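ESCALATION

Customer reports they have been waiting on this structure for their group meeting. Please prioritize. Original submission:
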Amino acid sequence: MHRTSRWGLVPRPLDRRPPLAWPAHLLIIGPGGLGDTIVALPVLRRVRHAAPQTKISWIAPSAFRPLLEMAGVDGFIASDQPPPVPQDFADVGAMVTFQDAGASTYSQLGTLASIPLRIGSAHGLRQRRWCNHLVHVKRLGWPRHEAERNFRLLIPFGIDPAPPLHELTRLAAIPPHDSATPADLPTTGYVVLHAFSAGHAREWPIAHWIALTGLLTARGWSVVLTGSASEAQRLAAAWPRATRHAGVHDAFGRLDLGQLSGLLSRAAAVVAASTGPLHLAAALGVPSLGLFVPRKGLDLSRWAPLGARAQGVQARTRCALRCNAQSCRCIGELTPLAVADAVASATRPEADVARAPIALARAS
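Update from on-call: job pushed to the front of the queue and completed.
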């Protein structure tokens, strides 16, 4: 049984242990989702600033490679494409994991348990079995935002665990992306609507998306619909292509991550559930509107998009209803008119680009 050190139970002045030394090579097991990866970027950027000589390798789905290389990783390991031979982690001095996964999950990569310093969350059931430095990323429910909780994983290295949220917003920022998109899609004057979330968030009713599309096109905007190929079929079942408004463009299943980034970078605004494209648009500095429910673990306080021109909306401040993703009344209470008005406000030339990253707008 390995000896385990625990961090984050008491503030730094009371914890007199010396911080861990930065390793020559740090391995990060990143989250599996796009939005979670965007929210984890402040950790990567802070490590790069605090330890410029440390080599950083990151394990993530192969689609995220361009994003992470742009953000500053030195080495990338695709979690969805096992290498023909196991990775050699002999030179890795420390590891930080964002996932509550057992070492066996990555057994095809090599022997992660041989890494001397293995840092993970004290709240992860599997991490407690194989990480030897466990960090209490929250106490009594605080901090609330996922980016703040992620940042606490750096406590063992002596990093301030409580930077202001606006600093985390700055560290999550991504330069505008100029990748070309299919020729039939507009290049200016459009709003991107990302209706679905692959089950990761509460989703607005399809009827509301249809109504919002009508309101936006009536106000002179083109609309680009994004999502996966399977989500295109889901939308088409409720809203056949032949019945859609003029000015509505279908990009479902047609864009890789680079093309999606380019499309979002040039958008006048982006509206989405609490999912990856929302967080990507926010990090790109695009006016972004996230649709949220006031339910613990899903609400604005934890998942608000990090961006100078991003905000979230939810119909209530609290939810006492018992519901699930298929019968969520709170998300349905956000009206298409309220969201269309929020888009109009966010796209005004005089809109304040330094707004707080967490903003609550109640639907009428």
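Sent to customer with the following note: Confidence is low (pLDDT under 50) at residues 353-364.
Escalation resolved.
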